[in-house]
């Protein structure tokens, strides 16, 4: 009896072990199948690292520079060298003939400066298309940025993934429920850094798979959040909180945009959202298909106004245009630098400025690269910051 019992329990134990082993084994196989291969892992790691490469994770950085403005090129080349960036210059344009404009251009009433600006941007997009670049960052030559631009862009990349990438294990479901709708009536949903772990890892661009975005409007002089409305852009927002590179609210200047990001969020918050009504084209990245669509819309299809107005039209708030997927960030990561001296030197597009600028500044940017040339070259680290915490706002006067 005793031996029978023992052998019975022995057999049970054997069967139990076999079943457990089988379960473990199949679980391991299933798990393994969902794990990225070492090669995939390496690619992913390097993709996020690429944001900190000399072209900020894009294939090239193109800078528009009028040959007559060698002064701006001096500063731009120095700023790039001191922050580890590599630039390629595209000549600005002058004397644009009316007959070269797309329909609507000849009687659009734009100034020669505005037409030159439009042509230069089209030339950049043309270059992106001709070279078949997967992506490029396009800057105007008076753009400035924080010394910490590379870490800022890494946070932006985490945020853009949340808005652009499908949820993990899906190809057509997104964290932002308004992502694929053209008529959204929902309230905006907010996300935070960390949520990017819930979306699929991109493989073709650190900012989100290249087929999923057209334009990243990183530098502007005013922006708004999309509103729930017909034909509005998706509503999702990603909050980057406790960002020491964002000035306290008293220092922030919305310029031609809305104050919502200043009044409704705690200090030191940067917000990534889709584009609505951005002004100025001083810094934006395009994907290859984005460059093709914009070149078609703005150089071939229809000329409907200044460059920035047309660009925010193609980003989704007007009919008759191809609708692009465009992200923006408030406050912006690139901003005009305003140097000391003759204010008329600020711009070659318009001549609204006169008199002398007595304080060099870059709005909303704390450790401005331009303002820190002297510090950087002297090897100092007590950087110039016009927008210190706890300090009253200063009058920039221009
Ligand atoms: C930077 O990273 C991007 C994205 O992977 C890549 O296309 C580009 O070639 C890299 N730039 C340089 C200079 O290696
Ligand atoms: C452009 O690049 C894409 C992606 O790398 C490639 O599939 C395509 O064949 C290229 N087109 C040309 C004309 O080289």
Structural class: alpha/beta
Number of domains: 1
Number of strands: 14
Bound molecules: 2-acetamido-2-deoxy-beta-D-glucopyranose
Query: Could you say which overall geometry the principal axes of the C-alpha atoms support?
Result: globular
The pLDDT mean sits at: 91
Q: Give the percentage of residues in beta strands.
A: 5-15%
Strand order of the largest sheet: 2-1-3-9-6-10-8-7-5
Largest sheet: 9 strands, mixed
Number of H/I helices: 9
Order of helices and strands: HHEHEHEEHEEEHEEHHEEEEEH
Nearest-angstrom radius of gyration?
26 Å
Q: How much helical structure, as a percent, in the residues? A: 25-40%
What low-confidence regions span 5 or more consecutive residues with pLDDT below 50? none
């Amino acid at each position: 009896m005793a031996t029978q019992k023992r052998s019975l329990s022995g057999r049970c134990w054997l069967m139990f072990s076999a079943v457990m082993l089988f379960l473990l084994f199949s679980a391991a196989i299933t798990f393994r199948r969902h794990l990225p291969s070492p090669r995939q892992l390496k690619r992913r790691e390097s993709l996020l690292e690429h944001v900190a490469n000399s072209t900020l994770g894009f294939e090239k950085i193109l800078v528009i520079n009028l040959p007559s403005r060698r002064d701006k090129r001096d500063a731009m080349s120095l700023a790039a060298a001191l922050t580890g960036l590599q630039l390629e210059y595209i000549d600005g344009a002058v004397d644009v003939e009316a007959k070269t404009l797309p329909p609507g251009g000849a009687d659009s009433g734009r100034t020669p400066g505005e037409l030159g600006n439009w042509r230069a941007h089209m030339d950049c997009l043309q270059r992106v298309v001709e070279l078949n670049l997967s992506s490029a960052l396009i800057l105007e030559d008076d753009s400035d940025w924080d010394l910490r631009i590379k870490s800022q862009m890494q946070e932006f990349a985490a945020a853009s993934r949340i808005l652009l990438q499908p949820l993990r294990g899906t190809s057509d479901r997104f964290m932002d429920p308004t992502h694929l709708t053209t008529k959204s009536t929902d309230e905006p949903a907010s996300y935070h850094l960390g949520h990017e772990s819930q979306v699929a890892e991109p493989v073709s661009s650190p900012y989100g798979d290249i087929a999923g975005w057209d334009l990243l409007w990183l530098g502007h002089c005013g922006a708004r959040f999309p509103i729930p409305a017909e034909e509005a852009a998706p509503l999702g927002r990603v909050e980057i909180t406790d960002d020491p590179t964002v000035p306290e609210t008293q220092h922030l200047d919305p310029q031609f945009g809305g104050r919502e990001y200043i009044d409704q969020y705690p200090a030191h918050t940067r917000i990534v959202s889709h584009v609505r009504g951005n002004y100025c084209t001083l810094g934006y990245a395009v994907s290859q298909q984005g460059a093709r669509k914009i070149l078609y819309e703005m150089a071939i299809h229809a000329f409907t106004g200044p460059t920035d107005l047309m660009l925010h039209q193609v980003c989704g708030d007007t009919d008759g245009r191809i609708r692009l997927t465009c992200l923006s960030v408030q406050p912006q990561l690139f901003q005009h630098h305003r140097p000391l001296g003759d204010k008329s030197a600020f711009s070659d597009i318009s001549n609204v400025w006169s008199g002398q600028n007595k304080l060099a500044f870059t709005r909303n940017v704390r450790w401005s690269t331009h303002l820190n040339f002297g510090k950087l070259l002297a090897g100092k680290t007590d950087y110039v910051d016009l927008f210190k915490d706890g300090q009253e706002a200063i009058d920039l006067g221009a």
